[in-house]
Structures are given as C-alpha cells and as structure tokens.
Amino acid sequence: MSVVPGEDNVFKQFAWSCIKTFADAMIELGEKPSLKTLSQNINKGIEDLLRALILQAVKQHAQSDWREQAESFLPARRENCTDTVHELNVLVSWYENVLPTYLHTMVVGECLKIFHHSKEHYSKITATLMPIFAMLTSGPLEESLSPDPSDASDKRPIWDMESLVKCKGVLYVNLDSLSDNMIASAVGSMLLSDLTAYAGKRYNLGLNDVRISLYVDEASNVINQPLIELLNKGAEGGVYTTIAIQTVPDLAHRLGSVHAARMVLGNCNNLIALRCKDRETQDFVTETFGKTYIHNVDTTLSTHADTHIGMPSFKGGASHKRTAVREEIIPSEYLGKLPNAQFFASLGGGHLMKGRVPVIIDDEEN
Fold first, then answer.
1. For 323-356, what is each residue's pLDDT tens digit?
2. Which domains does the chain carry?
3. DSSP letters spanning 132-193
4. Does the pLDDT at position 6 exceed 80?
5. Is residue 282's pLDDT more than 70?
6. Phi, psi (5° rounding) for residue 359?
7. Kind and range of the H or E element at 302?
8. How many secondary structure helices (H) and strands (E) does the chain include?
9. Which of 123, 188, 225, 354 is most buried, most CB within 10 Å of its CB?
C-alpha cells in the first residue's frame, strides 16, 4: 500500500487488494511470493491462479459428473471461445453453482472478484502498478529484493525484519536517493512497512525483550503511514525511532500539507535543532522551546542643589522600575547563526539545552 502510486484512496485500496489477492493465491498454491513472481502473475492475470485453485477443490470435493453439472449452468458455447477459456468457465461455474458454499474459501472468493471485475478497470490498475514492479525487479534490485528460495546455487541468506531482530543484527540501507529518488522512496517505504508489521506482532505478543533502534535520515524522502505509526505507537512494540529532516516544508511537500507535517513532528518526544535558515522551520523550533519572561530594570538618578543665600542644600534621589516581557526562549534569528556542530535541544520532560558536538580528529592523519 505504501508504494502504490496515485492520490485516489479508492484506487490505491483496490490496487492493494489486487496485490494481496495474488499473494494469498500463490501462498495457497505453495508458492513463495516475491516482487518478481507477483509482477509476472499480475501481468498475466488471475486466470492461471484461479484455475489451479479450483482444480485443487475439484480433486478434493468433486463428484464424477461434476463437469456435466457445471456446464448445465453455462450458456451455449460461443464459436470464438477457445478451449482454455471454456475450461476455466466450467471450473468457475462448478465452484459457484455446484460446490456447497460451506466449502468455499476466502482466497478463491477474492480471485473470483478480480475474475468478474471490469477488464478495462483492471487493465488501468495493472498499467499503474507495472512500472513500480519494473523498477523494483530490474538490474541488481531483482537479485536483492526477489531471491529465489528454490535456487540451490544461491548461497546468500534470506533475511526479513523478524529474523534480523531475533539475531540482534544491524541493517544499514543506503537508498541513494540522490541518484534515483523514486526507487529509493519505494524501497524505503517497503522496509518501513515490513518493520511496522513486525512491531505490531511484537506488541500483540508482548515481545519487548529486544530494543529496536530505527534511524531514518532524510526522512522526507521515505516517510509513509507505517513510519508515522512507528513514531506514534512504535515504542509499545519496542521500536524507538529517530528521524532527520532538513526543513518542515520538505516534510510538508512529501505529505501534502503543513498540517500533516506538524502532525508527524508532534509525535516526536525530543527535538534537536542544528542551524536552519528556513523561516517556517525556525518558527516551529521556537514554538517548541516556548517562551519565557525577559526582565528589564530601569534606574533613574537625580540630584538637586539649592543656590539661595544661606546654607547650601543638596538633594539626591534614585528610582528603580522593573518590567517583564514574554519572549521566545530562543529567538528565531539565532537558529540561522548557529556554528557548525552546535545545537539547541528540547528533550522529554521539558529539559532545554544548548550543546556542541565535539569534533574528533585523528592525530595520526595530521
């Protein structure tokens, strides 16, 4: 769902449902879905998978005259109807009209929805999905993201998020978004979705024995709903997330609005701000740090000398006036003047600090 293109939620939901149906059908047939095999099956259509699924049911539940019973519900065969198409129509007719409903399965039911769906609309869905699959299954990405578990010559271990966490491993992913932002966004979104699903499993099973630390640099390139869920509820599943962004408008551009960007940032407990030149980002940081009272003291001194005849007299006086004005703790313009490696931080519990990251220099190289 996170990599399905388009802004229409109904369209995206149908596309996601289509992908899930193909994946479930492959699993039901004993196949292991991958990006490559999903792409191949979606491109061919649901017919082959549906035929194999119904044939399984025929072997288990059909009577000897099942074909005659199924054909009795079909209209007369057209002259241009091929044997392959007719055979599939017979199988579908038997499943829908002869097989008792209590023997029907959800997987076959979902496949039948696609089978009966408008061919024109389905072609539009696949026309949108196939470029995404093409990007993720071309070149080195095919070997990395779609390994064949049946290939005995491939000695590489196949990892997922669950196995990685169980062995307390470290996964570093260089998405290279500078070279190809679209592919980087798709791969990053898939990995974050996988981690979010596993975090949900850990939460449901109460598995918090291993702390998962997630660091996402240039988060505006890959942020999606699963990452937002991790920021919001990930700690319950043992996932502690740190994101790094350049400016608030970068995040707003990715999510579609400043309101959505601020919602994401509102799920972060701690804020560390380095030098930022963007005014909107500066305003967000100063709002986070809040305001304080700035006190001013005005002092007035006065003297007076009496010059009349007689004893001279002198008078003096002093007055103090104290006023307080509520101002930002950190003025916005100061954020644009921070030196390298210096920062302001607002930490959980209301702790505010000004800090400097020490620069470690290797003496041997100098």
1. 888 888 888 888 999 999 999 999 987 889 999 9
2. 9-145 (no CATH), 161-289+330-365 (3.40.50.300), 293-327 (no CATH)
3. HHHHHTSTHHHHHHS--TT-TT--PPP--HHHHHHTT--------TTT-HHHHHHHHHHHHH
4. no
5. yes
6. -95, 115
7. strand 291-306
8. 15, 7
9. 188
Q: What is the DSSP letter of 320?
A: E
- The answer, as to whether pTM is greater than 0.90, is no
Distance between CA atoms of 217 and 227, rounded to whole angstroms? Answer: 13
Q: How does DSSP assign 194-240, residue by residue?
A: HHHHHHHHHHHHT--SS-EEEEETTGGGT--HHHHHHHHHGGGGTEE
- The pLDDT, as a whole number, for residue 309 is 62
* Residue type present at position 105: T
| Strand, helix or coil for residue 309 | coil
Task: Say if residue 79's pLDDT is above 80.
Answer: no
Task: Give, rounded to a whole angstrom, the gap between the first and last alpha carbons of the chain.
Answer: 51
Distance CA 231, CA 240 (A): 8
What is the band of 121 on the pLDDT scale with cuts at 50, 70, 90?
A: confident
Give me 61's structure tokens: 């539940």
Q: What's residue 318's pLDDT?
A: 85
Query: Can you tell me the distance from the alpha carbon of 283 to that of 248, in angstroms, rounded to the nearest whole number?
Result: 10
